[in-house]
Fold each of these.
Amino acid sequence: MALPRPERLVWDLDWNLLRTFVVIAEVKSITRAAERLNLKQPSVSNALRRLEDRVGRRLVERDATRFELTEVGRLIYEQGIEVFGAISQLPLLMRGVSDDVTGHVMIATASHVVSPLFDRALSQFHSNYPRASITISVAPSAEVTKLVRERRASFGICLVSQRDPAVEYQMVYREFFGFFCGPEHRFHGRAGLTLADLRGEPSVSFQTDHISDALRPVALLRSEARLNADVVGVSSSLEEVRRMIVAGLGIGPLPLHVARRDVADGTLWRLPPYDAPPAIDIFLLVNPEKAMNRAEKALLSGLQTLISETPLEERIYDG
């Protein structure tokens, strides 16, 4: 393949080819890419071949059992994400151009972000800028990080297992997890239980409840309690984990401050350990390379100010 002159590539490149390649790289399959793009498979294969011809390099190594991006393929995928991240911001930026602060703010959060600090930031923002609008999308923490990195979210709030060098982090609050059971469970209402009583119990949990993931402290406690290794149900949503606990599928972990009302109402019952529950920090994620409209800047600045002005001890929610 002949290498194109660098100054000609930007003018000669069909940007649809780049869009198609980004999808191919994300789903790691020509067939699945065709399904996502609503195109026929030969059209997607042809688009990949045309892009490879245009850049003069192979972008994908594939056979019946393997699909891998080449080094150049990974580079073009990363730059493609940057391009489409920038383009996706244009409507938001244009909506923010007026005398008033209007514009739209896209927030990505994990499902169990329950914080008076965040609520207060939203309330103050709406009071100050009533013409601005907000979308809050709930997703697993890894997806929140991805949305922030790719500049498809104004900012994110979630758990963090591994830090992304393209993202800046600020701790919002610290929460503590405990085990709970539902009203029909035989442990409900029983005092004096110990961690040993939980041995072999069926359980439900979050998808990130793994030794190598964001809920590592909870996973370690699960191992210490020797719960049944076969988890009955998992979800990335706090509401659904709570639903499974209440429905009696098994015991499960929830943030103490989130479960407090259910415990008071008798819907949930706190189980051991009662001392030194596992702590999880929740972070604000920001991509410093994202161009923000005025609404995004205003809400982010207000939240960051509240975090900075609130002492750490007031941002520790022990339930």
Amino acid sequence: MATIYEVAALAGVSPATVSRVFNGNTVSEEKQRLVRDAAQQLGFTPNKTARRLRKQSSEIICLLVPDIENPFFTALARGVEDRAQESGFSVVLCNTDDDPAKELRYLQIAASEQMAGVILSPASDEVDLGAIASLGRPVVAVDRTTPYPVDAVKIDNRAAGVAATTALVDAGFRRIACIAGPAGIEETEDRYLGWKQVVTARKTVVRDGFLQHANFRVDGGRAAMNALLKLAQPPDAVVTTNNLMAIGALQALHENGIDPEGFGVAVLGELPYLLPPPVSVVQVRLPARHLGRTAASMLLERIGGDTQPLRTVVLRAEIARPPLSL
């Protein structure tokens, strides 16, 4: 079996550099490539068991997301895995269903199994990171922040809400409602505040009932859209603050026979399916995969011993298609 010294000689680097590459420490992309190419040629496999005993942690990252069926979190998970694999780490994916009790069980397992670190989108503001924190394991919050002092990477959700609503106003819609996620979640609050900022500044019609809270899933979007359509003076457009709720809203419009040319829909996120009603839709692209890669990079830096001050990285969303017109 090849040794670390043989890999170093073939790659033209020091044994310490080889060690840093396989321990997930910061090394230039060129040196990473040289080391991994040499290791592959020689059939070199790092001794994971020895390293785990020495470091008292595994080479496994725990990723906790609220709903893996949501394409946003699927893309985010892919970004995390891609980056982790580049540094020789594996990823365990846990689906919390936005359930704090389920989330806590997974965090306790991550601690007991000595996983190297955790990336999570918290189920609530009351997330309990005590077990992980007691071991000194790094944590990165993704998409939503936590009350704990940890690194975070998120989307500028308020700006995304502003962009979605502005696209509808610029297209000529004047009674714009909002279907937001559950109240009390940071992401929900920021996105609907973006909607509120625009409808207030542009002086569009806002009636009681125009803000609907729903779960983040298709059934929640459908129920909220049906409630909006039952208002005495229903909206002529709606901002939906995630993609699955948008699908439910579009289904409700189709089921109620709404004229597809006269109703606007803005979606924060990209629609994962082809839908039957050809309604006017603007999509705000959320950089989910980039979000995952960034979170994984930040975590790997901490695992490698990075001691710089805590960081919060904010990524921008963008309109995914040209503005609408009536």
Amino acid sequence: MNQAARKDVILVVDDSPDSLGMIHHALDRAGLTALVALEGEQALGIAEKMVPDLVLLDALMPNMDGFETCRRLKRHPELAAVPVIFMTGLTDAEDVVRGLEAGGVDYVTKPVRPDELIARIRVHLNNARITRGAHTALDRLGQAAFATDRAGRWRWATPGAEERLALHGADREPRLAALATRVRRWLDHQPAPGDQSALDLDPVGPGDGAELRLRYLGDTAAGECLFRLLQRDGEEESELLRRQLHLTRREAQVLLWIAQGKTNREIGQILDLSPRTVNKHLEQVFRKLGVENRTAAAGMALRCLTSG
């Protein structure tokens, strides 16, 4: 017997019972499951017990407004990737920006038009599914990866990235703020997929952010910027090349530096090899990859590094 398809769960947060009733009815007609909360603290409690697929959040509420509620939702690693759509009677651009800066992905104005609301919900549910697919694939591969928006604001991360960036306890918020600044400045220079940059964050403990590099993997289908965290010695990337392209350890190291534009002489200095030995390794790399020159080999390496 086929089980019924799981319904997407929408958490609706609004201090107006009338508004809650109308939205609940629209969601039910659209085949979506609604959870309701009348204020921010209640919403946080519900979300922690049952992670929703999307949150509809009133911007202006007593006690804790929607902006602060959204910020607190995003502090939870389990909730950080849940899309938040703000509902507001405010049309001022500054208030819209406040919602996006708090972690929202979209907004609708009140009075809410049900058809428009459902259409926007479906778009963001689909984007979230795409994001979860990338997240799950990277997590299964053991990759330390994370995604931000174009302004560097945190969207989601694999457990490996959370651990390497030391995003825990009281250090989480200041470290995310520092990371956002660093990522935003780099994105302003329009890096190409495969480009790398040193990540200079103040270390919290041995091996923390100060010893890491970022590799830009490109934009996801959901419009997020995807990054991989790497150790500065390049050992992880050469190991990836070794496994994926069936090379020896030394051949993978040589290919990694070829992909970064180094000459045989420079590679020899880095790896403590003679240029002739580097060339011998490179000949074997060309043979195994079925290519004829450095450019083609570098291209294969970069494709492997940005997709694996």
